[in-house]
Amino acid sequence: MLRYISRRVVYAVFVVWAAYTVTFLLLYQLPSDPVSIMLGGAGGEVAANASAAQKAHLAHEYGFDKPAVVQYFVLLVRAFHGDFGQSVQSHVPVAQLIAEALPSTLAISSLGLLFALVIGVAIAVGANFTRNAFLRGLLFSLPPLTASFPTFWVGLVLLQVFSFRLGWFPAVGNGGFASVVLPALALAIPGAAAYAQVLGRGIEKTLREPFIDVVRAKGAQRARVHLGHALRNATIPALTLVGLTVGGIFAGAVVTETVFSRQGLGRLLQASVNTQDIPVVQMLVLVSAVAFAIVNLVVDLVYPLVDPRIARPAH
Amino acid sequence: MTETISPLTAGSLAQRRPLRGLRSKTTLRPGLVLAVAVLAIVAAWAIVPHLFTPFDPIVGDGAVAQSAPSLAHPFGTDAIGRDLLSRVVYGTRASLQATVIAIAVAFVASTVIGLVAGFVGGWLDEVLMRIVDVLLAVPSLLVSLLLVTALGFGTTNVAIAVGVGSVAAFSRVLRSEVLRVRTAQYVEAAEGAGARWWDVLLRHVLPHAATPILGLVALEFGSAILAIASLNFLGYGAQPPAPEWGGLVADGRNYLATAWWITTIPGLVIVAVVISTNHISRAIGVRR
């Protein structure tokens, strides 16, 4: 068991380090000129006006005058000491920017994850439990259909219906619980669809297994067969999927926070890409990798609780 | 010697399977006919947009600003009186071009990775797949945003960014396909008969992996359209006043309360196209 845990932890650390390396390669080593980008934005108009001294100063500050390998290790060591650089645009430390934006995004993404789990499990169980053929068909075909919806569009339609038509929720802003509901729902839909699909198929398959016949023969009620046995046995693949989609929720926040005009990590990322603020973009992408690593670590540690066979050594 | 046996079996099987599958399913399911029809119309929009609408997509008529869908303007008009149908029709080319570029980038890169990893195997496979794992840990939208930051804005850069964003998932599937075909008996037979490795690769493995790859491309088409629309919605792609589907939805954001059609209708067009491509990919018979 200890070996299992330590291996998962090492792997989580590896993922974060590797994600750092990939972002470094993409942002700093592509055949573009980070200094000009930092000084001038996409077209580089301002960069032409910037003096050579200014350029040299910036290049020195970020270490671009040194070989790539040296740059990489300097930035890595700094990041390791908690120094993630500062925004090129506002000169505020990146760590501070992220800390300020984090709570708002955590609120919508945790509520979004909760919505996704509740909706996903409800559809999966309902689709298998119902005896109505039409309802069953509907519940099974709904999840793959929603995968065809652009997330920004879903958010806008929700806004239109629930804020402007019905007036149930405020249209914009960061204030209070009511303002969190719609963004969380918009974030939840892709995840809910994925969970419903995998869990639904899992339950369907489990219900055909011989041990279910045994459970039925022993006189268990239908609800107990479905919830106590089929659902539990179909949980593992769905659990894996939850771990994999957490990064997706953060990516969804980029679009959703823009749609609902909320402050948060996603909006910060959108604005930073807009101004090509390289240090901020890099750290935000890294935040998503860290979230991914942590959640998957938790999922890995939960597996043995759901299925004790997993932590036992193979053979 | 191998050359006389294998192209026959490999080639004919791979070519016949998808076609026969499609034909038998069209007779059964009208949904597939509808999906193909939707794509045909959209393709026509991209090639000859002027045949579908008499209105100019860039110059509006202020007198009819924000008018609801009607016979004259089936999709309604936007805030400055431009006909929304002609904006959607003329925007098709930009959206589809970007999609094709994105798929080409994703496809070429991941075919190389998938073939090398699945075919050479060993430590190279191990290294490549670990890199792919890490890329999978970062959502594809964020990978695309990294590239947009580094490359700059514009339709082509957005298309490349979306392509690179889907390389990881794409090469994983390609590798597993290659592995599946690789262990097949006819490949072992070819190897046993002394065929050179690149002959085995190009003449035996690739043709057999072609059918699932075709289905995957169709599926990828849908997700590429969605990703490109998202990046355009965020404002990194085509610059106004040039029309593009995702950008059109973004244009309507400020008029949600007064003009529902500006966001809803272009969004429905995107949904219709994505559903159609997903449907076709299922008909070819591939699940990711």
Automatic annotation (TrEMBL), chain A:
It is found in: Cell membrane. The chain crosses the membrane at residues 9-30, 106-126, 138-164, 176-198, 238-260, 280-303. It is a multi-pass membrane protein. Coiled coil: none annotated. CDD domains: TM_PBP2. It comes from the Bacteria. The keyword Transport applies. InterPro entries: BPD_transp_1_N, MetI-like, MetI-like_sf. This is Peptide ABC transporter permease. Belongs to the binding-protein-dependent transport system permease family. Pfam families: BPD_transp_1 (PF00528), BPD_transp_1_N (PF19300). Residues 102-303 form the ABC transmembrane type-1 domain. Keywords: Cell membrane, Membrane, Transmembrane, Transmembrane helix, Transport.
From TrEMBL, chain B:
The chain crosses the membrane at residues 26-48, 100-124, 131-152, 158-174, 213-238, 258-280. The keyword Transcription does not apply. It is found in: Cell membrane. Keywords: Cell membrane, Membrane, Transmembrane, Transmembrane helix, Transport. Its main location: membrane. It holds the Pfam family BPD_transp_1. InterPro entries: BP-dependent_transpt_permease (IPR050366), MetI-like (IPR000515), MetI-like_sf (IPR035906). Residues 96-281 form the ABC transmembrane type-1 domain. It is a multi-pass membrane protein. It comes from the Bacteria. SUPFAM superfamilies: MetI-like. Belongs to the binding-protein-dependent transport system permease family. This is Peptide ABC transporter permease. It comes from Frondihabitans sucicola.
